[in-house]
Amino acid sequence: MEFANERKESDNKNSSSGQIINDPSSNSLYAAPTDNAEDRERQARDLKAGLHPLKHKFVFWYTRRTPGVRTQTSYEDNIKKIVDFSTVEAFWVCYCHLTRPASLPSPTDLHLFKDGIRPLWEDSANCNGGKWIIRFKKAVSGRFWEDLVMALVGDQLDYGENICGVVLSIRFNEDILSVWNRNASDHQAVMALRDAIKRHLKLPHSYMMEYKPHDASLRDNSSYRNTWLRG
Q1: Is residue 204 in a domain?
Q2: Range of the domain at 179
């Protein structure tokens, strides 16, 4: 399966969400400098090169598999790295060439994670955490995914340091967005992240979001069954 397609003329237009302006020189995604020494060095190099560094380096991954029983070996084998980026310019180059959600087959997962964190429940950054789950009709999921990607890359969500990554899961009857966080036992941070997601995506206050710790996913071998409803 191919995630890169030829850039069409429409890529240069604003998206329906009003969030994307395909101008590589734009610094609208630029985030404040990080406290991490390695990231500071990276940002300094990018600035010297005349680029706009992001607070974090990110990696796009995808998973395309045949429906069936999930096993650790087969799932890891099916996770493929697409590209990494650490500047606004590099982000636009790769994002504009990604196939849009409406064109992806089911089941497919598209992951955007901070560099160094694999999109696996068992990864050391994820194993004590969980994920917020938001279900959308397929006609609108692309716009919300785009908004969520912009929020993560631009460090626009409260409690952003607690976020490991975001996932778009293409399924037959619906598409599912999930936001992975580091610590499922920190109730205050988990609920604050929920509120930040609702605000940023402009979800109705009454919208019921679902949460599931990764250790529960490991026990029942499922990403989206047996979730906790949290208003």
Answers
A1: yes
A2: 39-230
Instruction: Report long-range pairs for 191-196 (Cβ below 8 Å, ≥24 apart).
Output: 191/230, 192/158, 192/159, 193/132, 193/157, 193/158, 193/159, 193/162, 193/163, 194/132, 194/230, 195/158, 196/157, 196/158, 196/159
In 102-149 the beta strands, taken as DSSP E runs, fall at: 108-114, 130-136
CATH of the domain at 55: 3.30.760.10
Q: Is residue 197 part of a domain?
A: yes
Number of domains in the chain: 1
User: Could you tell me if residue 9 is inside a domain?
Assistant: no
Question: Strand 53-64 and strand 130-136: pairing?
Answer: unpaired
User: Cα torsion for 23, 29, 34, 39, to the nearest 10°?
Assistant: -40
Does residue 101 lie in a domain region? yes
Helix axes 141-153, 187-201, angle to 10 degrees: 120
- pLDDT string in tens for the chain (231-residue length): 333 333 333 333 333 333 323 343 344 555 555 567 777 777 787 677 677 899 999 999 999 876 655 555 567 788 999 999 999 999 999 999 998 899 999 999 999 999 999 999 999 999 999 999 999 999 999 999 999 999 999 999 988 889 999 999 999 999 999 999 999 999 999 999 999 999 999 998 888 899 999 999 999 989 999 898 776
